[in-house]
Amino acid sequence: MEGYGVDAAAIAIELKNASNWWRGINDSPIWQDRIFHILAALYGLVSAVALVQLIRIQMRVPEYGWTTQKVFHFLNFLVNGVRSLVFVFRRNVQNLHPEIVQHILLDMPSLTFFTTYALLILFWAEIYYQARAVSTDGLRPTFFTINAVVYTIQIAMWLVLWRKYIPVLVILSKMFFAGVSLFAALGFLLYGGRLFLMLQRFPVESKGRRKKLQEVGYVTTICFSCFLVRCIMMCFCAFDKAADLDVLNHPILNLIYYLLVEILPSSLVLFILRKLPPKRGITQYHPIR
């Protein structure tokens, strides 16, 4: 019995030391700056990769204009670039008034991130329905309508908060974005899953079948997971101040969160979708329009 008491005491001491370590880093201005600058550097790297890929695609097929593929890489460049700047000037952002300006700078890239990856859902939906000889005329208007509704609701809440700061509305804003993230996760599960199952039914000897199957499977899993994690974290952030991502003294939580829901997924998806269109004159290119 004494042995169990000693073990329990040792565990309690270890947990206390771990808690002190976590609190010490969170409360340290030096560690706060280091972690936010690490995030800024990682976002800057992902942004640069997306820009390089966009330039390479444009050099290959300049005659096709702004295809979905080009828009996807441009939005990745934009989202990650803005995130990088926000984290570079994190202390300045934290001091902005009224407080709603801070929320706009932190949340607007998240909305654009949603639009960026909703483009993949749109593209997969178009492929799926075209393969089944179903009209896709309504898909793009639906895509724009959904995005317009999401942005309109969020901007309306920001405008109300601008006039009068209402804590309950801040919670509703975070829960709204949690719902948007869940919607995106289900979109990837629905159309990524459908496309994956459809590709599985193709003949084994089909050219590129295995590679496309892996590509769709990996991207679906990555994007579904990242939006689901974002949804769960937004729910915690809305009701638990200890999980608040909008404050300076939660740098470790920020590092873990943004790595899991934006930096790592963006990096992996850009790597998986790194293939360039074929050079002109070699084979016909069907752009992602």
Automatic annotation (TrEMBL):
The keyword Coiled coil does not apply. The chain crosses the membrane at residues 35-59, 71-90, 110-129, 141-163, 175-197, 218-243, 255-273. Its main location: membrane. It holds the Pfam family THH1_TOM1-3_dom. It is found in: Vacuole membrane. It is a multi-pass membrane protein. Keywords: Membrane, Transmembrane, Transmembrane helix, Vacuole. Belongs to the plant tobamovirus multiplication TOM1 protein family. This is THH1/TOM1/TOM3 domain-containing protein. It comes from Hibiscus sabdariffa (roselle). The lineage of its organism: Eukaryota, Viridiplantae, Streptophyta, Embryophyta, Tracheophyta.
